[in-house]
Every structure is written in structure tokens, then in C-alpha cells.
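User: Here's a structure from my thesis project, written as C-alpha cells. My advisor, Dr. K., wants to see whether a designed sequence matches the one we expressed. Can you design one independently, without my sequence as a hint?
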């Protein structure tokens, strides 16, 4: 479980804080969406979770530990719990698919026998069994992101942080990557935190979401809680978006509204 308490982050020289007094809980095993306009503080929040950024004040409690207070060796161990995937995949083009996934295992000093086994099972998990010897340049965007996901999961993290992981993909490929993330969450029981600007992403796989604006938390909660707030911003944003409406509303909305869209 992740608990942020009064988290603030100001960059040197910036006129306003990137994050201001954010208090937020992300439940264990959830797929949780972070929403907000450009510059709202989404990436800063994600980077505070793996301590690529240090908060200016406040607490970041992960699995009961305040990670804003960790020493460097403790921080290295903690970072292994936080896998990360990126919008532009960030694969090493000088390594084939197998070796990209193997890299974090090599760095972690895992034995070569165990590395071979883990990479093989990760290739299977992301549906790329036949692509181990392919080069990144030979892959489609969706396949590259599958490699990114496998690489992020190599050291068996408890959390997967996704920074706009589907923004560079077409809608169909986006759907298949989201379904893969939902499948991985189920199989591995990890917690997934994803930044997105697409409500369709939230509707398709998220159990909860938060909305940031100018570094401040506007609203957060489970999707069921969000949908019960009749005046809520997130509810409005979810209902305004046209995609997946029937399935989504059938799941979360009261009878009257269901009838309106049937
Ligand atoms: N390294 C940095 N140094 C100074 N200012 C920064 C730095 N990183 C982000 N900022 C500023 O902090 C604020 C929040 O940025 P952040 O990247 O977290 O927002 P975001 O919601 O992820 O935006 P986007 O969707 O455009 O990526 C912005 O005003 C941004 O300019």
C-alpha cells in the first residue's frame, strides 16, 4: 500500500511547487490512474514514488516504511520494488530483446541459470516467446512496450509505475497493452500506478484514480466512490468521455442513468 501524506515538491527556481500538500492512498493490488493536465505534477509524483525525486516535505509510506527517510543502500533495495515503464519504451538498441530484459538481472547479480529461466518466463508472460533474439528496431510499438514491461518486472517488483505507457500507441495496441497490464496485475498481484490523460484508460482497467491540478490533489478514490460523487470532477470527466460507456456505466452507475444510455 502507498500512503502519501502532505507530500510537497518544489524545484529550485520554480515559481510554484510541482506538488503541494498531496495526501493520497493507493491500495495494495490496485491499478490506480493519476490524471491531470500537462504540468499538473503527475510525473513528479511518480518520480517521488521511486525517489528519483526527493520530496521537499511530507511522507511517502510504502508498505509501512517512510521512503523519504531511507539511506542510500536502503533506497537501492527499495527501488527494486518499483518497476517502471515509459512512453517511449527506453529500450537499449544495442541489445536484443532477451538481453534488454536480462539487463536488470545482470545488474542485480542474479545467477546466469536463474536469469535464463526468468527471461524465458517473462517473454512468455508478455507474449514474446519467439522474439528473444529480435532487435528493438524490428519490433512494433506494442511489442517494444511488452519488452519494457518484461524488463520492469525482471527483478520481481511489488509495484509497476507507468509513465504515459500507452500514449505513443494506436488505440487497438493501447487496448492490448492495457489488457496485458490487467492480466499481469492479476497473475502477479502487483500494484500498478499509471499516469494517463485518457479517460478510456481509466475506464478500461483502473480500480481507483486521482486528479491533480497545479500540483494539488483535486480528488481521489476508488472508481465506485468517484462515481457516487454526483458533483465530482472525475465522475464528470469519466461520463463525458464517449468510449466504453455502456460497459462502464453498467458496472458503476445507478439504474436511471443506465436506462439513458441503453
Ligand atoms: N526537473 C525539473 N526542474 C524544474 N521544474 C520542473 C522539473 N520537472 C518538472 N518541473 C515543473 O514542475 C511542474 C510539474 O511538472 P510534471 O512534469 O510533474 O507535470 P506533469 O503533470 O507530469 O506534466 P506532463 O503531462 O506535461 O508530463 C511543471 O511546472 C514543470 O515545469
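Assistant: Designed independently from the structure alone:
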Amino acid at each position: 500500500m502507498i500512503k502519501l501524506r502532505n507530500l510537497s515538491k518544489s524545484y529550485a527556481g520554480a515559481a510554484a511547487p510541482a506538488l503541494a500538500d498531496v495526501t493520497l492512498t493507493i491500495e495494495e493490488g490496485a491499478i490506480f490512474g493519476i490524471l491531470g493536465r500537462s504540468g499538473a505534477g503527475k510525473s513528479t509524483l511518480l518520480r517521488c514514488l521511486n525517489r528519483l525525486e526527493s520530496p521537499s516535505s511530507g511522507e511517502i509510506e510504502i508498505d509501512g516504511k517512510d521512503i523519504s527517510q531511507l539511506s542510500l543502500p536502503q533506497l537501492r533495495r527499495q527501488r527494486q520494488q518499483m518497476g517502471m515503464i515509459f512512453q517511449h519504451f527506453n529500450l537499449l538498441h544495442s541489445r536484443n530483446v532477451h538481453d534488454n530484459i536480462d539487463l536488470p538481472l545482470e545488474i542485480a547479480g542474479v545467477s546466469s541459470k536463474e536469469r535464463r529461466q526468468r527471461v524465458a518466463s517473462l517473454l512468455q508472460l508478455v507474449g514474446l516467446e519467439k522474439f528473444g533474439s529480435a532487435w528493438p528496431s524490428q519490433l512494433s510499438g506494442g511489442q517494444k512496450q511488452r519488452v519494457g514491461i518484461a524488463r520492469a518486472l525482471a527483478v520481481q517488483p511489488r509495484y509497476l509505475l507507468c509513465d504515459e505507457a500507452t500514449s505513443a500507441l494506436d488505440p487497438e495496441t493501447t487496448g492490448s497493452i492495457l489488457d496485458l497490464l490487467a492480466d499481469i496485475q492479476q497473475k502477479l498481484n502487483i500494484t500498478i500506478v499509471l499516469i494517463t490523460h485518457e479517460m478510456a484508460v481509466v475506464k478500461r482497467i483502473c480500480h481507483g484514480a486521482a486528479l491533480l491540478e497545479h500540483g494539488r490533489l483535486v480528488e481521489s478514490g476508488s472508481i465506485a466512490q468517484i462515481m457516487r460523487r454526483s458533483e465530482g470532477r472525475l465522475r464528470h470527466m469519466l461520463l463525458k468521455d464517449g468510449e466504453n460507456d455502456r460497459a462502464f456505466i453498467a458496472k458503476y452507475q445507478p439504474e436511471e442513468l443506465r436506462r439513458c444510455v441503453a
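When you compare it with your expressed construct, this may help: The longest helix spans residues 171-188.
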